[in-house]
Design goal:
This protein has 567 residues and is an alpha/beta fold. The chain contains 19 helices and 19 strands. It has helices spanning 2-25, 42-49, 52-55, 60-69, 71-91, 96-118, 244-251, 258-267, 305-311, 315-320, 334-351, 365-372, 380-386, 397-407, 434-441, 450-459, 484-489, 522-525, 546-559, and strands spanning 32-35, 128-132, 135-141, 154-158, 162-165, 174-175, 180-186, 204-213, 216-222, 229-232, 235-238, 241-242, 277-280, 289-294, 321-327, 358-363, 415-421, 500-505, 532-536.
Amino acid sequence: MRVVKKSMRRFHVTVIVVLAVVSVSGCAPFAKVSYKKPRLDPAIVALAETSPVARAGLDSQQALKKYRKNPHEKLSIHVSAAQLSSERLAVKPSDQEALGVYNFAVARIVGEMDGLQKAGQNPWAKPITVMQGDREHALNFQMPKRKLWNPELYRMRPADEFRIRGIYVKERTIKPGLGAPVVAIPLRPMPEARSLFAPEKPYGGVTALLRFNSNQCELAFESPLLSETTLFQGRRFPLAADFSVPLAAMLVDPENNPRRLGFARYFNPGKYDETAQLARLDPWDENKTVVIVIHGLTDSQATWTPLINAARSEEFIRKNFQFWFFSYPSGYPYPYAAALLRTEMDAAFAKYRPKKPIVLIGHSMGGCISRLMITDVGEDLWKKIFGEPPSQSPISVQSRSMLEPALIFNHRPEVGRVIFLAAPLRGSEIAQISLGRFAAGLIRLPKKMISLGRDVLQFATFRDGDLKLRRLPNSVDTLAPNSRFVKIINTFPVVPGIPHHVIYGDRGRGDSPHSSDGVVPYWSSHMATAASEKAVPCGHGVHQHPEGIAEVLRILKLHAGKRNARQ
């Protein structure tokens, strides 16, 4: 009977906690994606009516019907449309009608290639013969030089076939120009992606272009995140792009399921150890500044979608910054998560060497992790927790191997600026109240941390008012204002010379600076040493609010030296 009551109590607590979190984040989906074939361009219809099929004795309606059923006939029609419009663009680059026909035709060519691949064929393996009038042309594919971008590993779908919406993709960021924006949808996870610090399913936004030379036509994919323009017909054209669809498509991938992953990694972090990852969202460019975004408790990298979408809408940001994310099981105590980040940074920056100081952006507990990246503690933090230096602490070898990276560290020399968003640097009272203590009790740390917890409890020093536990502290515990770690870490100043900024929420009540975002009070997020401080009229989600996003982009422009970015 006692076991049943205990199980029911745990179930009720789980429901309470989940409902509390969902009430903040909402039940609406992060993104929704539907598909709809665009209507045929009138110029394409006219070409279909004069195609070789039509001239073979079929009337225009029959020719159009035949065209719609025959992939190779459609390829021929679209190649012809692309060539005719490209010839017009060579004479008059400002011809918007020709530009529209060209982009539409190239998008349909990519769509037909995708259809052939879906039917079991491999259209990327060898040239495809297409007819242009009475002449045969070879449709070739230009193999990309970047790793992980072999089109055989993806479904290449034109972006104009996508209809997107959702709480994370309210705005569609499109850049006009030459070419057909395409979404590269991975067919399966790619194990080699981890060694390249890319997501295991690296969704990408590329732009398709078709170039002509004699009886050859070549289809190529270019990245609008690597180049703003493209060379076409001897002239420079802006490169078209759709930056939102790849993000939305990634969010709805059932293997990603960011909302489920966020909760799962909170309740059972040990099961998801392998998901701790520092990964690139953009193609590597050594001339761009690396920006690492770090999510908070029960969250995932998906939370940064509105910010990334907005950032990609600005050419200055695209030209000067590349975005990475650090994702981790948020049930772990955040000093341990910070140690995981340092390990990832060591490996990533041994492979990719940034030329410029990087920027860290941390939301909520991600801000607490970021704070540790600009703090020197050496062995002093260890001494304050255990009362003696590491060499004299009677802690087991196994426990020491986990504790030392989390408690003995100095600032990261790569970091040149930090932006704190609703960060509970001095803790949050929610972690102390009954609901917070229940939430902490639901986290199941892995077995490897059981003996570690015994060592910490046996040898750590505590003072009156400190949070005392019978187990190793988890993430919620290390966010409590009376946490021993929180109290001690705030006795260490951040390293001088690294600009840092605070963005906090006041729920629109106008009571700043004596305010709270509903989760983090102002006194916890405030930093006297901050280069700037911005109140945003919202709750805890300041990183998704338009004013919060605008402030982040302002700071990034300041970091890149843009003259009109106010201090």
